[in-house]
TrEMBL record:
Domain of life: Bacteria
Name of the protein in question: Phosphoenolpyruvate synthase/pyruvate phosphate dikinase-like protein
Pfam family, one: PEP-utilizers
PEP-utilising enzyme mobile domain: residues covered: 528-598
Keywords: Kinase, Pyruvate, Transferase
Family matches, as InterPro entries: PEP-util_enz_mobile_dom, PEP_Utilizing_Enz, Phosphohistidine_dom_sf
EC number: 2.7.9.2
GO molecular function: pyruvate, water dikinase activity
Amino acid sequence: MSTILRFPSPFEVETPAGCEGWEAMYPAYMRFSQARRDSEESRLWFYNGMHFPEPISPFDVITAEAFYVAIGEMNARFFCIPPALGVDFRVLNGYVYISGIPVTDPQKIQERVELFQRRAGHYYENWASIYEDWKQRVVREIQTLEGIPFPELPEIEPEELVFAHRGIGTSMTILESYNRVIEALFRIAQIHCEIVMIGFAAYLTFYDFCKRFFPEIPDQQVILMVSGIDVSMMRPDQELRALARRAVELGIADAFVEGRSWREVFAELQQHDNGRAWLQEWNQRGDPWFWINAGDGLQHQFRAWRDDPSPIFAVLIEYVRRVRRGESIERDTSSVREERERITAEYRALLPTDTDRQAFDQLLALVRQVYYAIEDHKFWVDHWFMSQWWNKLRELGTLFVEHGFFRAVDDIFYLHWTEVYQALTDLLLAWSIGTEAFGPRHWPAAIEHRKMLLAKLRAFNPPPALGVVPEQIADPAIVMLWGITPERLRAWITREKSNILRGFAASPGVVEGPARVIFDVAELQTVQDGEILVCSVTEPSWAPVFARVRGIVTDIGGVMSHAAIVAREYGVPAVLGTGIATKRIRTGQQLRVDGNEGTVTIFE
């Protein structure tokens, strides 16, 4: 009988010193509990550092709630993906852990196959028109969100409200607006997952086809056949490069000096005509393309470039410097596409019959369309919509500050969204009759305590996984996006002390260079030319930084993760899903990254 491999039980993980009581920040249903212990200990849970790289504040956990409801509904009840029902989640010491829910009954799987083929097949047959309509729906959601009002509470209601004969005052407008903002997130999560979940399933179908005909084909060869794409997530970096060229053309390149902040540079540019012209172009190009945040969009602290371009400003300065030297700063896509066509032609020629080649062509054409959308969608929802959504909540935060409930606008994010309903009812009740609200005497101190807890929880080192290693993982998203497979999990749990780390060969090539280990988005500014970026996970919004680094190594991520896709498009060798890179590697250590074999060698 095979030995059951286990990570620590979630009930064995200790609370960090000084963080006692962290549980009160989150609803009971999203915490591990003794009432469900038998079930929770018998499953695998892995740390979702890809989407939630930092301890999650009480409000931000709504994004896990909304998106995991959407993933579950799309998987289990909408498209009926045969082996996968979606993901469950828990919060432990402030960190989000998720668990895939499989379908284990073969008869049920077969029933779902028939439903999936009919439903997803309709989408695949009409993908181009559906995806174009999908983008238009997202833009309409953003426009609607922008129009949601949070007016000030007046001393006396204006007469136009009275004479409108509606009997509806400002308090109702604010309450309705908050409801609309919350509903907007749950709705956009559904729209988001409508495209993504069957996208992974389409890729897996092509992958299985290739493995059936070419059992020895490396995973990377399959992936390279669908590379060489030009998606919306690349557009912000293209606009940044265009602005670098414009700075040189306008004769203002001297303002872009290494070490200067964006605020210093922008203040200087505001003083003369060409500088103001460049700033106007920054704003024009930035709407919508700089509505891209430095994280994955699901935590409020990662601000859009339009609000704070600090994480990428050093790269803009570097682009300006290269243009002045006469260097090209264009991304080379031709070599990626040439390699794609070469590999595709070689494998196609090996197929035994015309029927097989026709099936190959049809699957490849579909997956290239779908693969495009898997990465392209991120800009529209995770970045543009989510950046605007967090800012809309800041408008409500401003109202709370004006009435003494909070000390800072972003304090709203230290209440769970259901607690905001309580605070809002308290505020509106006190305003309506002119009495003292409870909130100003309660929330400032409670928020400071929660900030202290989250700051201390940042020092906690979350285990990469909890619970039992399963024999198989059938969910295509968990395998392709997060890179969680039984083989990877066994490697994490049985790792030996070695100078070689193993992960997914996510982007080809072999390079050597010094490591730059970062744990925070703010540290992106420290990345130097020619270094190898080592982090828990990268974001596609870090694409400008990819122009500086020689290689990429991450703790988490699969072959279809956003980090893998962007690394391949930029031609940067990458090894993802090592599980322990940020724990084993120190900044300055020499590394060899082999993106062909999936190994990272540490030269002590």
